[in-house]
Amino acid sequence: MTVSANTHPQQLVLTNRKAEYEIDPVFLQRWSPRAYSSRPVSDETLLQVLEAARWAPSAVNWQPWRFVVAKTEEDRAKFLSFLFEGNAVWCKQAPVLILLASESLRPDGEGENTAHAFDAGTAWGFLSIQAARLGLYTHAMGGFDKEQAKRVLNLPESVVPHVVISLGYYGDPAELPEPLKAREQPSTRRRLETFVFEGQYGQALRVR
Fold this sequence. Notes:
Blueprint: H1 9-16, H2 26-29, H3 43-54, E1 65-70, H4 73-82, H5 85-91, E2 96-103, H6 116-133, E3 137-141, H7 146-152, E4 159-168, H8 178-181
Antiparallel strand pairs: 1-2, 2-4, 3-4
Helix pairs in contact: 3-6, 4-7
């Protein structure tokens, strides 16, 4: 499908994504665009999105995820200072940027929480699905200078930055830089049999 200013994002989903088995439509509707509107996200809506992340499961219920939110022009400029140019060029339009990090140490001080990154990823998944339910779009970016992010945002040494998340409403893909316009569509997924096995790795799941 040719992406134009008149292309509704759900048209892109219907064209590019088909579930093999019945699932909630929100899982197909959630995708990671680069075209954002400057329409602001209300504080209430933002808190709804973060509330969903709050309820993610975690090892021993330690809840290691940490979020740093940028919604003012000044704070978003901080984020743009450590994002790689390939991301900064498009996500500067998004009204909200969020750094997702995680506390790597156990709350009891007895060493590292080896599940901290896994749990933070789960929180991101919850956040992204809630955003999709509210008609917003998210895009997680690993392309940024993590050491600079730690300095700029004053992260403690034990807090590990993972991704920067753009959050907002869908915009006009015609405003994207030329190389990105062709990529502005939902990606598909591999078939289940390519990554689901039964009994041992490489052995096909038996479906009766």
